[in-house]
Each structure stands twice: as C-alpha cells, then as structure tokens.
Specification:
heterodimer; A: alpha+beta; Uridine Diphospho-n-acetylenolpyruvylglucosamine Reductase, domain 3; 2 domains; five-stranded antiparallel β-sheet; 14 helices; globular; B: alpha/beta; Rossmann fold; 16% strand
C-alpha cells in the first residue's frame, strides 16, 4: 500500500509497507519541514517510538513502525551549500539522489555512490550504507560522508564524523541510532553525463566469475545480470555491463555542446491494481531468454545515459506493482572471496527450484567500510527478487540463509523482510556493539521499526 | 513481527486445547513463532498442550480464560498484550453441543450460543482493539461451514457459528486499513475429539489440513479461507438450493 500525500493530512494511522509491499503495518505519518519539527515529532512520538522514512525504497520493513510514528523525511529537502570547486555538498537528509544529480551534474559532479534507483534519500543512503556498481573501487556510501547531523533520542542534534563510534553505528544502522537530518558528501568529478559501456555475455557462472575477477579492475562500474532460470550447462549465464563516465572526446559533436545534460525519461506508471501471478515461471523465463539473446556477445564503448546504465527500472514508476497484491521479496546476500562454493550452491538451488526470478544481479564487492551493521564485505553479492506468494518460499530462503551464514556471509537488512532472528548475530559480528551503543544513547527505545522488532536489533 | 510471508513470531491461541489451534501452533512454531500464549480453562489438558509445544522449542505461557465469563476478558487479555506485541490471535474455542439434547434443554443450547458467539464477541473485540493499537497483527477466527446454512442436524451450533462468522466479517471490514488483518476460516467436517462418534460428512478434513490452510491464508492475507478449498464452490451452490429440496438432502 503506497503512501500518498493525501494520507499525510490526517491524524490517523495509515498502513505503511516497504517497496516489496509485504507485511503492512499502521503508523502515524509525520512530515517535518524543519529540524525543529523533526525534534518535536520525535519528542512527542509516544510509547511505540519513531523511525525515519525516506522514499520507501527499502524492500522490507526497515521504515515501518507499527502503532508508532513514521517520520516522512522528504519534507526536509534543501540542498544547503555546494562547493563547486572542491566537489562537496551539504544537504538535508530528505534530498533524493535524483535531485542531487539534477543539480550537480550540470556543475560536473556526480553522486559518489548510487544504487539501482535514484529515488532514495541521502538519509536512507547513509542508514542503509548503500552500495553501487562501483563498490569494488569506491566502497559504500559512508566512505564519502564527511559529516552528519544526527538527532538523537535525547533531543540533541549531534555532529557525527567518520572514525567515531556513533558514525560507525549510524552508517548501516537502519535509522535506529537517531534521525539523520543532514549530511556533507564528497562528490565524484565527471566531464559528461554519459557513460561509456562495455557489454559482454557470460555463458555460465564460472565464466561469469572469471570475467568479473579479471576484468573489474579496469572499470569503475561493473555489474552482471544473471538468468537464474537457466539450468544445466547454462546455469548462471549472464550479461555483464561495465563502464566509466565517458570523456568529452567520446561524445558525438552535437552532444558535445551540452555534455552535462541530465534529462531522465519516464514511462507511464504501472496501474494500482495488477492481478497477481503475472510473473510466473513461463513469463519470466521468456523474458530472461529474450533479454539474454538481445544482449550483444561483446560490445565496446557504447554511450548510454546515466538512467539507462544505473537506473533502468526508474523509468517505470511503481514497477513494484507488477508483482500484484501479494508483493515480492528481494533476497540479497554476500559471501567472501574463497567462499565461491556457497555462491554456486545458492545459484544451483535457485535454478533447480525454478524460482521465477527476474534477472538477478551479481556483483563483486571491494573492501568493506567500518559500519557495524554495514552490509558489504569483500566478496560476491547476489540479489534476486521473487513473488512473496510462491508456496514454500519461506523455508526455501531459510535454507539459503543457512548456506550463506555457514560461509561467513550475510543478508542485506535494507532488503530483508524474513530473516530468522537467530542468524542475525552470526551474520553481523558487530551486532553486540550496536545493541550496547543503542542501549546507551537511546535507553527508552525511542527509535524502533518493524525491522528492529522482528530481528530484536 | 510477522515476516513477509505473514508468519507470526508471537501467537495467542484462545481455546488453548483446541486441536485445530494446537495443530496451527505446531506448524507456526516450526517456522517463526517463538512465543505462544495458550488461553483456556486451567486443566491438565492445557498444561499438556503447553508442554507439547515447549518440546518443539517455543516459549509457552498459559493463561486462564473462560469464554463463558466475558466480564473477565478485558483484564485478562489486557495482561497478555501488556507483555508485548502479539502478531496473531487465533480464536479457536467453541463447543459443538448435542443437538437433540440441547433442543430439549434450552439452557444447554444457550450455553453453546454463549460460548461460541458471545464469548467470541467480547474476546474478539478486545483483541481487535489491542491489535489496532499495536498497528499490526492477524486475528484468525475459526468459523464453520455449519454457519453457512441451517441444517436440521446441528442448527444450534450452526447458528452460533453464523453469528460468529458475520461478526468476524464485519470486524474485518472495520479494521480494514488499520494494519490489522482479520481472517475467517470455514472448515467443513473436521475429524477431531469434537466430532468423535459422529457420522462423517463428505469432504471431511483434519486439524492439520486446517492448520496448513491457515498458514497459506496468512501468506496471502486472505479474508476468507475454506477447508478444503472446494467447499467454497459446494457451499455457494448449496446456499441457493430451495428449502423444500434442501430439507430432503442427506446433508
């Protein structure tokens, strides 16, 4: 159930869900426009606490708070200062990466890290410590944060800088240390708003992993789309797209006149009511087949727009509705280098079970960042989404969790909606420190979400 | 909290010795449920039921609950909810009565009605209010196909389930959009202690099958669940059979 602006005027709880549209719960939505209003909302949130929410792109229940308050942060949307020489921006937490791109690209700067959608807020990016196609080079979002303003449970606004405990608890901390009010970010310089992209096909999983291992160093951005419905010898076949910001001289003469133009296009949104079961095994299988065949075997230096390369799904508003009323679950995990067997095992199981998973994404992570609950670590990460209504999906994913945990890996909390709480401490060794810090700075448990209730964060 | 598949972590079973209730609890404990409250009249059977679930690894607590004492419901259920969120309430208590016996003794018939209907109205409303305050949760109500159309053989029981069913449907509508999900479960003839010795009706089912259907209904956020599913079709046909004809049917 989406949150529409009309809901915001009422003083009644409204149902809130994550992007996967599973497990709705009702909360009072508050939309602060200033830091003072945010502080007041936290102060008056009542016994069931509060959690900040950005654009609702977390797949699971990280930005829901049943029976309590949810702070819609999109009202805090000012870009405060831009250092166009040094490439530093100070902005409110509710500013989206989309907005930052609109403003910064013409100045020759790009966001340091972007996930598969531009429609996430800076606050959300910090709290989920998001990663992008450049993780092997640039690490996660927190690496580019110079400082934060954090509203903590005692009503104070603290300036939090890297290298401190509070910073490491907040980056990846899923909003449970406080409300991020603003952030200072270091940007990445670009000469054009186009990408120079190399595409190649990998015939199976081993081929794919070999290509990623040997080739990733040459590219700033790298990602592979895997067809998880392919079986047998084709298991794990994939299309790799890797690229770099295009240099000025790569542009055709006409484009060179406005090299930094940024004009994303959008298709009409998916209607509100879509019958469930649209994405069955057959339809997804046909789609994956076509998509794999359509990709060139090898193509060099193709010019693509930023939306086409980074955010293909943003072109279809509300694409999450195609999964119907039952919603969907996204499963993303990481396993370290040397644990490739666990990755192979998961891919085998998914292929064998024939989960109707749209084009899954495989990526090779570089060094992790110090956030205690930060997801990335050096190794392999795979993300796939599956309709939640699939019979037996819960136990099946529990089985995958076990494979991942046994290999010392973890699942991504920003996408989780179903992890067994017992496995959390195994996957996140920093959990105890996180809990201890929360107990210290938020003894009354003001900041709480459905995710934190479900996993006893 | 429930997970993406609607599986609860904490469960309150009203009618803690109900076979369907316990079969459902066992099923959910095997998945995510860690805390189970069993509410029922204190008895060795209730303790045994609790021990059975403990063996599966759940943290089980019992609480004295009497459907026939609605005046005590608020305080008692209030205590349960004060201990923490309940992700799912299963309203599973009910008595079948003895039709011939109860027809001759109106007070016995009233007792059936009070247990199945009045007791459910009070405890159902209290739980619904508590779930609404916590902003999430499922209220699963065990109705029966017997409530769909009056049958000569069990209309006292059937009428009490008809009342319960209508009540639960309305409650579901009232709670629509509050984050609380109300699910009405309509099993056919269930082979259990309650029906021991009775002539089995067609399409008979078992407590385990009902439990499985409940889990599936939670996953789909269904509002109505028939067990077995084909009863939906059968009953919608039977509902329209003219009464002179219906009387003669061997149902």
């Amino acid at each position: 159930m989406p949150v529409t602006p009309a809901d915001l005027d009422d003083d009644l709880p409204v149902p809130v869900t994550g992007w996967g549209r599973t497990a709705p719960s009702a909360a009072l939505l508050v939309r602060p426009r200033t830091h003072e209003e945010a502080a007041a909302a936290v102060h008056h949130c009542g016994s069931r606490g509060a959690i900040a929410r950005g654009l609702g792109r977390a797949y699971g229940d990280a930005a829901q708070n049943a029976g309590g308050a949810v702070l819609d942060m999109t009202g805090l949307d000012r870009i405060r200062t831009i250092d166009a020489e040094g490439g530093v921006v100070v902005c409110d937490a509710g500013v989206s990466l989309h907005r930052l791109m609109e403003v910064l690209l013409p100045l020759g700067w790009f966001v340091p890290v972007t996930p598969g959608t531009r429609y996430v807020t800076v606050g959300g990016a910090v709290c989920a410590d998001i990663h992008g196609k450049n993780h092997h080079v640039s690490g996660s979002f927190s690496r580019h944060v110079l400082s934060l303003e954090l509203l903590t449970a005692d009503g104070e606004v603290r300036t939090v800088v890297p290298g401190t405990e509070l910073f490491d608890a907040t980056t990846g901390g899923m909003g449970l240390t406080g409300v991020v009010l603003s952030a200072t970010l270091r940007l990445h310089p670009v000469r054009t708003s186009l990408m120079s992209v190399d595409t190649e096909r990998a015939t199976d999983l081993d081929d794919l992993m070999a290509r990623l291992t040997t080739g990733d160093g040459r590219y700033r951005y790298s990602v592979a789309w895997i067809d998880l419905l392919a079986r047998g010898a084709a298991t794990g076949r994939a299309v790799l797209t890797r690229g770099e910001h295009a240099p000025l001289d790569a542009l055709p003469p006409r484009a060179r006149r406005r090299p930094l133009e940024f004009r994303p296009r959008q298709l009409p949104p998916v209607p509100g009511v879509v019958p469930g079961g649209l994405l069955g095994r057959a339809s997804v299988s046909v789609f994956n087949e076509l998509w794999y065949r359509r990709a060139p075997r090898a193509r060099r230096e193709q010019l693509q727009s930023i939306p086409a390369f980074f955010h293909p799904l943003d072109g279809v508003p509300h694409w999450n509705r195609v999964y119907g009323r039952g919603g969907f679950v996204q499963y993303q995990f990481v396993v370290g280098h040397g644990r490739e067997e666990a990755l192979r095992e998961v891919v085998r199981r998914v292929a064998r079970r024939q989960c109707p998973s749209f084009l899954a994404v495989l990526k090779r992570f570089g060094e992790g960042d110090p956030g205690w609950l930060s997801f990335p670590m050096p190794g392999w990460t795979l993300a796939l989404d599956v309709p939640a209504g699939l019979p037996g999906l819960g136990p099946f994913l529990d089985g995958l969790d076990q494979v991942v945990a046994d290999a010392g890996g973890r699942v991504y909390l920003a996408k989780d909606s179903r992890l067994r709480p017992e496995l959390l401490a195994v996957m996140y060794p920093g959990l105890d420190r996180f809990r201890a810090l929360r107990a210290r700075i938020d003894p009354r448990g003001v900041f709480v979400s459905d995710l934190s209730r479900r996993l006893s964060l | 909290m429930k997970d993406a598949f609607g599986t609860p972590q904490t469960l309150l079973v009203l009618g803690g010795t109900s076979e369907i209730g316990l079969a459902t609890a066992r099923r959910l404990v095997a998945r995510r449920a860690r805390t189970v409250w069993l509410a029922g009249r204190p008895s060795p059977a209730l303790d045994a039921a609790a021990d059975g679930l403990r063996e599966l690894g759940a943290d089980v607590r019992t609480v004295p609950f009497d459907a026939l004492d609605p005046s005590g419901h608020e305080e008692l259920l209030g205590k349960v909810f004060a201990e923490g969120d309940i992700d799912m309430v299963l309203l599973a208590f009910g008595v079948l009565g003895d039709q011939a016996h109860d027809e001759a003794r109106p007070l016995a018939a009233v007792r059936v009605a009070q247990t199945n209907y009045t007791g459910a109205v009070s405890s159902g409303l209290i739980c619904a209010g508590a779930l609404q305050a916590q902003g999430h949760g499922s209220l699963v109500v065990l109705s029966s196909v017997a409530g769909e159309r009056a049958r000569r053989a069990n209309f006292i029981y059937g009428s009490s389930k008809a009342g319960l069913d209508t009540f639960a449907q309305g409650l579901g509508d009232a709670l629509h959009g509050t984050g609380v999900h109300v699910m009405v479960v309509r099993p056919g003839f269930v082979r259990s202690r309650m029906t021991a010795g009775l002539v089995e009706a067609p399409l008979a089912t078992t407590p385990d099958q009902v439990a499985r259907a409940i889990e599936k209904g939670l996953r789909r956020r269904s509002e109505t669940v028939w067990v077995p599913g084909v009863l939906r079709v059968v009953m919608s046909a039977l509902r329209h059979v003219p009464r002179p004809l219906f009387r003669r049917l061997p149902v």
